[in-house]
Amino acid sequence: MRAYVLCGGFGTRLRSVTGDSQKALVQVHGEPFLVRVLRQLAAAGIVEVVLCAHYRADQVAEMLDALSQDAGLPLDMVIEPTPLGTGGALLNALRESPPEGRYLALNADTFLDSEAYRLAAAADDNVLVAARVEDRGRYGSLEINALGRLLTLREKGQEGPGLVNAGVYAFNPGTFADAQVRACSMEQDLLPGLLAGEGIGVLEYAGRFIDIGTPESLGRYVNDFHGDAMS
């Protein structure tokens, strides 16, 4: 199975740490954070990865061979001509490098154990992976029905514990086949569109879920996880 990894964002909140570098390439114990994400994909049985890049795509391109070697995965790269958002980046990559079957899509700035990707890859439907957290404030929280189907993807800012979107998806090959490439959001545009049609299953995952999008969360990851950080 192929995975499309979204690594084109500007990383504004992390700029005090990364400067003008690509957020996913921030160094963690001597290696790019992205390598750790890619290793989890390899451990889950993913056989190829397409990196969806825009901001500092030149840095990603320069490191492509080293990332591939360190992660043990063949890597390709698709560059957005203009910023397209998380949804548009995926649509652009699907047009430029179409999948042959079901595929994963995920954020490059979040660390999850390989089990999250195994869950998504083993599903037969359009699905997203959900994590249960103590404070949903930074994430899009989820409302699901008794059958584990997504009812609503709420905006960030909901208080208290609950299920949140972990930023890992599996889609059928034809799900976005007719979608026009445009600037759009995965959470605000593509997923709500699916709710009105094919629907989305929700898979609850109980492993590590660490978003490095702020200096504080990156610092916690750096302090808590050393070595290879493999499952």
What layout of secondary structure does this protein have?
Blueprint: E1 2-6, H1 15-18, E2 27-28, E3 31-32, H2 33-43, E4 48-53, H3 57-71, E5 75-79, H4 85-96, E6 103-107, E7 110-112, H5 114-122, E8 127-133, E9 142-144, E10 150-153, E11 162-171, H6 186-195, E12 201-205, E13 209-211, H7 215-224
Parallel strand pairs: 1-4, 1-6, 4-5, 8-12
Antiparallel strand pairs: 2-3, 6-11, 7-13, 8-11, 9-10
Helix pairs in contact: 2-3, 2-5, 4-6
Describe the structure.
Helices cover 31% and strands 26% of the residues. Strand 4, helix 3 (57-71) and strand 5 form a beta-alpha-beta unit. The mean pLDDT is 88. Helix 2 packs across helix 3, helix 2 crosses helix 5 (114-122) and helix 4 (85-96) crosses helix 6 (186-195). The two termini are 19 Å apart. The protein contains 7 helices and 13 strands. Strands 5-4-1-6-11-8-12 form a 7-stranded mixed β-sheet, with helices on both faces. It has a single domain, classed as Alpha-Beta Complex (Spore Coat Polysaccharide Biosynthesis Protein SpsA, Chain A), CATH 3.90.550. The radius of gyration is 16 Å and the shape is globular.
